[in-house]
Sequence to fold (182 residues):
Amino acid sequence: MTEADPRPFVGEPLALDLLNTRWKEHGRLHDLLDSPSGLRVWLAGRGLVDQFPADDASLKAVLRAREALAAALADPGSSTAARQVDDVLSHGRIRPTLTANGPGETAEFEDPAWSVAWTAARNYLHLLATAPDRIRLCDQPDCIRHFFDTSRNGTRRWCSMALCGNRAKAARHYARTRDARL
Fold:
């Protein structure tokens, strides 16, 4: 049995959820991917533990993908960051197939260790093609989590209203009441 995912914020698209395997809580930086067992926890939480390996080689590939995605989001126009993402994507390809239900696709990898890293990088390309302006970093200054804004009007600011949004609103309220007393 795999242990539960300890992260306070889960469920984003795969690429962003990979970035969110690093988080800050109570001023301390945490990293779920500090071992193959952490990779297994992450994969289990995504329902992927039976699809992808969770060994040392896969962990190394996933960490490279996470670094590449972080660089691409930190500087979207960077050719260096684009090359890092392209390097991860070079480890797999899509093969068109014909299935009983019609046209399909199958992902193929020379080295299975790169399968989940490649899948996360491909998911990032899908997010960019869908709505690049909806890929966001949480607006809470102490938060390092990313999210895909699915709100109707596209104005979501926090990874989670319960986590960061509530903190920001409480801080604003405290500042208003403090200023009113002065």
